[in-house]
Design brief:
With 303 residues, the chain is an all-alpha fold. 76% of the residues lie in helices and 0% in strands. It has helices at 3-27, 32-44, 58-81, 86-92, 96-107, 114-134, 140-163, 168-176, 180-190, 193-199, 205-232, 235-238, 245-257, 263-280, 288-302. The relative contact order is 0.22.
């Protein structure tokens, strides 16, 4: 990955880390499955009427939409509604990096390099340090749903990688159009019509902000960039950058939700960052143009 791509991956991780805060605001007002439906409805409408369908198979659009919208965020938001703290959720969801590498090797034929293994071991050691400290008071059902969400996230990564769309933002918008109806049906079954109607009474500004931020910045912006990276780079190289999300997630939950991290959590976050550096490679490649300029200078000196 180039230096620019690395920084874009870090930017995506920062957005996703903070995104757990507005998600908490939204879930406090709306049932979790309804909140997910609103998020993806705002992404798709009215954009889908102005953005041309990406030149990928319909199965790719539907697959990304179901895995990402219904599976990943449906499970995550229900998990948070059932007691999963935002900071801990940002950690557990990063198990997707492991599932993505495993699935990429199994289904995409990508090669696993030694640095990937070493970096993943280090990163998940840091993840274990954080999770051990924070999982004591968390319901097992909430933890299990969050892990399930990480599996669906990995499936979404693989579907996105298989699509290899040259129009990442169009893919996200059209895939987002797949999610609202299944999520709304699930919310009607789980929560009931009366609960849904009641959630729209006296909606606070924070809840509106939660929906809008998650849709515009968290989905169109961050997932659009993520899709672009997955279209051009192996999933096993891109996915580990999401392990930086807990660092930003814990920090945002500390500042905005008063979820104060313990010293062990900060140590674990530092270990995870080291793991990501190892996975991505310690040497940052220079742009090809810079190399060409350097080669020209050397040839001039020789002459």
């Amino acid at each position: 990955m180039t230096l620019k791509e690395r920084w874009l991956a870090v930017l995506v991780a920062a957005i996703w880390g903070y995104n757990f805060v507005p998600a908490r605001y939204g879930i406090q007002q709306f049932p979790p499955l309804l909140f997910a439906a609103l998020r993806f409805a705002v992404v798709a409408i009215p954009a889908i009427f102005f953005v041309k369908r990406p030149t990928v198979a319909w199965k790719s659009i539907v697959g990304v939409g179901l895995f990402m919208g219904v599976g990943q965020f449906g499970s995550l938001y229900v998990s948070m509604h059932n007691g999963m703290p935002a900071g801990l959720a940002s950690i557990v969801m990063q198990m997707q990096a492991l599932w993505t590498v495993v699935f990429a090797v199994s289904f995409l034929g990508e090669r696993l390099q030694p640095r990937h293994i070493v970096g993943m071991v280090v990163a998940f050691a840091g993840l274990g340090v954080i999770a051990t400290n924070r999982a004591k008071a968390t319901p097992w059902s909430a933890l299990g749903l969050c892990v399930l969400g990480s599996v669906f996230w990995a499936c979404s990564n693989i579907a996105t990688r298989q699509a290899r769309s040259s129009q990442p933002f169009a893919l996200i918008i059209w895939a987002s159009a797949v999610a609202p109806i299944p999520l709304l049906v699930l919310s009607l079954v789980v929560d009931g019509p009366s609960t849904i109607r009641g959630s729209f009474q006296q909606v606070p500004g924070k809840a509106v902000y939660g929906v809008v931020f998650a849709a515009i910045v968290g989905t169109i912006g961050a997932y659009g960039l993520w899709t672009q990276l997955l279209a051009s780079r192996p999933a096993s190289e891109v996915a580990p950058y999401s392990l930086l999300v807990p660092f930003f997630g814990i920090s945002a939950a500390w500042v905005f939700l008063a979820e104060r991290p313990a010293g062990t959590e900060l140590i674990g976050a530092a270990i995870m960052i080291v793991g990501v550096v190892i996975v991505s490679g310690l040497r940052f490649s220079r742009p090809q143009t810079s190399r060409n300029v350097e080669q020209l200078r050397r040839s001039l000196r020789r002459s």
